[in-house]
Backbone:
């Protein structure tokens, strides 16, 4: 199991991510040279990979914090599995397979045809991805909103950052289904701003996002509860593992779709976002081992506020475009403020 008492230097945690960055950017250079045959073309692809990696890291601060919060409750076996299998699913599943799957379903073509389209018809591939943005934003926004509200609507929650708001949310948490009602009401309100078929697509996608969250919660509780009745130690943590994988997928929606604003090359997107995913893994391990969440009491609150804002932004993006840079900087700013509030609170307590 990850030992929170072992505080290694920051570089040690980031070492594998740095190695992956060097390899990934080298592949980006090679891809740029192979596709353009010029130094300027190779440097352009190198620059795009770098920007995508930075964008993914800025969007994933809150993801790493939530991962760390869930990971510390998992058994040692499932901690290791999440940090190995999980990163493979995150890098290859969500950054490569997921965009291909969207094209397979939307264009009604085979997987091989989708790969050929990504390689030889990047503009058409990007068009299909952008057309799929509405249901993806509705699904991912609803799922992430439920993640955030479940944290705040908790009657056992006794640490509040924004006292006047969080105290009331914890108080009303005793009303069953209050967060579900809130999300459904907001989804219906947003759907009224859309016309015709888009309205139906938004509502159905939002409902599927809500059902997915509830099913993961129920399945996770059932699987982890079964550990108490059996001696199958490997069973413990499967529910949390599934929850984290779906959560990572929801975080990835925005980054994958937004990446097509910079390039239509699927392989460049996979390199850039894959680098970012490796840093999320490294930051998750660092947060758990160094006990950062316990040391900075409001850091987790900032992450969940960032998730809540991200979910609303995903809803808004069904109406108009919001640059991903704003999304990433907004989430990082909230986490930064929560970190500063935690440091100030620690100083006051020590004084």
Residues:
């Amino acid at each position: 199991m990850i030992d929170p008492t072992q505080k290694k230097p920051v570089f040690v945690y980031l070492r594998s991510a740095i190695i992956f960055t060097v390899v990934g950017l080298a592949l980006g250079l090679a891809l740029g040279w192979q596709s353009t045959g010029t130094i300027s073309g190779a440097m352009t692809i190198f620059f795009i990979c770098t920007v995508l990696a930075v964008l993914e890291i800025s969007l994933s601060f809150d993801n790493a914090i939530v991962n760390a919060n869930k990971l510390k409750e998992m058994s040692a076996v499932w901690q290791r599995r999440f940090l190995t299998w999980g990163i493979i699913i995150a890098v290859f599943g969500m950054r490569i397979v997921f965009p291909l799957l969207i094209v397979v379903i939307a264009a009604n073509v085979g997987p091989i045809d989708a790969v050929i389209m990504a390689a030889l018809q990047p503009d058409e591939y990007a068009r299909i991805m952008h057309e799929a943005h509405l249901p993806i934003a509705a699904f991912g926004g609803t799922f992430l909103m439920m993640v955030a509200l479940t944290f705040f609507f908790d009657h056992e929650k006794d640490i509040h950052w924004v006292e006047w708001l969080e105290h009331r949310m914890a108080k009303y948490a005793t009303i069953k289904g209050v967060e579900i009602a809130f999300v459904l009401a907001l989804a219906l309100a947003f759907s009224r701003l859309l016309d015709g078929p888009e309205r139906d697509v938004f509502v159905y996608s939002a409902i599927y996002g809500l059902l997915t969250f509830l099913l993961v919660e129920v399945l996770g509780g059932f699987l982890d509860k079964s550990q108490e009745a059996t001696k199958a130690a490997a069973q413990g943590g499967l529910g949390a593992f599934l929850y984290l994988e779906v959560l990572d997928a929801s975080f990835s929606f925005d980054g994958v779709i937004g990446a097509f604003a910079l390039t239509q090359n699927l392989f460049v997107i996979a390199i850039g976002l894959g680098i970012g995913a490796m840093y999320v893994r490294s930051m998750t391990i660092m947060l758990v081992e160094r006990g950062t969440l316990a040391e900075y009491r409001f850091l987790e609150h900032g992450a969940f506020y960032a998730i809540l804002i991200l979910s609303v932004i995903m809803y808004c993006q069904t109406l108009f475009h919001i640059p991903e840079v704003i999304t990433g900087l907004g989430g990082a700013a909230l986490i930064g403020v929560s970190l500063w509030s935690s440091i100030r609170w620690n100083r006051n307590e020590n004084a």
Q: What stands out?
A: Residues 229-236 have pLDDT under 50 and may be disordered. Residues 10-350 form one domain. The chain has 15 helices and no strands.
